[in-house]
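Technical note accompanying the year-one report. For the benefit of new consortium partners, we illustrate the data format agreed upon in the data management plan: each record pairs a sequence with a structure-token string. No post-processing was applied to the example shown here.
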Amino acid sequence: MASDDFPPDWPAIEAARRVALAATMDLAATRHALTRRKLAEAGLTRADIAAPADLARLPVTTKAELMAAPHDAVLDLDGAEVPEEQRIVWDTMYTTGSTSGRPTPFVNTTSDFWDILLLQRRMLRIRGVTERDRIANLFPLTRHPHGGFFRVLHAAAALHIPVVSALPGNPGPGFAVGQELDGVVETLARHPPTILWGVPSYMRRVVARAAELGIALPDVRLVFVTGEGLSEEGRGELLARLTAAGATGAQVSISYGMTEIQGGLVECAAGAGLHNPHPEAIAVDVVDPETHRPLPDGQEGLILVSHMRRRGTLLLRYAVGDLGVRSTAPCPHCGRVTERIVGPLRRADELTKVRGMLVNPALAVAAVEGVAAVHDFRFEIAREGVLGMDDLALLVVPEPGAAPEAELAAKVKSAIGVTPRVVLVEALDSASWKAKRWIDKRI
């Protein structure tokens, strides 16, 4: 039976990984099309992968490869002599953000789901959740099942605590039980939560609307955000909104959520790094973005995830697409031993040219996230005119009575060196439950 407690040290983690990976590789070498292809590409055999460190000999798997052939990443255990729970498909979740517009399926067997429950339980423990807490699930229900909505329910179940799902939005004409924003806030009033859990852009709207309606949220002590990036400026602005809604003393906890682990790397405290909650089953590495060679702790590189014991979708040396810095030292705040991503995350392909200048979109977004007069916003870049000059527009839904154009233009220019054209709008359309803060229409 898997333990709720973290392994005490790295030797214990490495021993657990070695045993788990041995069984996984025995299956993957013959029953996993993606692994067979990677072994052949590197001129390796099953015998060449004897320990987790040997995975560095395998070529990296990219997100584009997974999207192109997701079924190649699923173990074919038909007829295999494995326990029944390793063969039964429990559920299938889907990633978002596909350039094709088709979400990528991610398959979980029953044994995978048991590990997901343990992972979710540990995520809550790392974040300081107790058996006295009550969760408000602010994720929408979507056409394609996604981990955001469902895993909140499973996290609550794993710790045996209550959860209320507000069901914001409307995924389609046949969906009859969703709620508009005011209904969501009224749900929080009827069932006062101690934890709010959702994407930061929607969380801002919920908390702001609660303050407008005079509905206090005094019991809220933790706010979990995932699915979108949130800068420290954004965290501070959200904390101010929480205070205005009566949630004085609340803490905002950021998760580095990944469909590929069916959960996220989470903070025990702001600034303490993003903890891998299940190091026995998931390995997090950082490699050189060009050579894909492992980097030592403290150096920024491409983040890779490797599954030690999955039986549905299985990924080894999978590049999630972000750059970060890893630490394997015990957390200075909570003392847990596991991989932590410390310092800011950024997309591997994040830097882009605007009007001939190389800019970091994350800095532009952070400059706007901290402005209280902004209700919602999005940057859009397009070509204009016969010469194809870059037009950087900042579309802003202002708070009532606010006129933040000059302030925003100045803040963005200070952050990235380019002055945007600020356009005030009544609303921003979106086909995704995640807010897209930077859209490049030149591509």
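Partners are asked to follow this layout when depositing records. Residues 10-116+267-347 form a domain with the Rossmann fold fold (CATH 3.40.50.12780).
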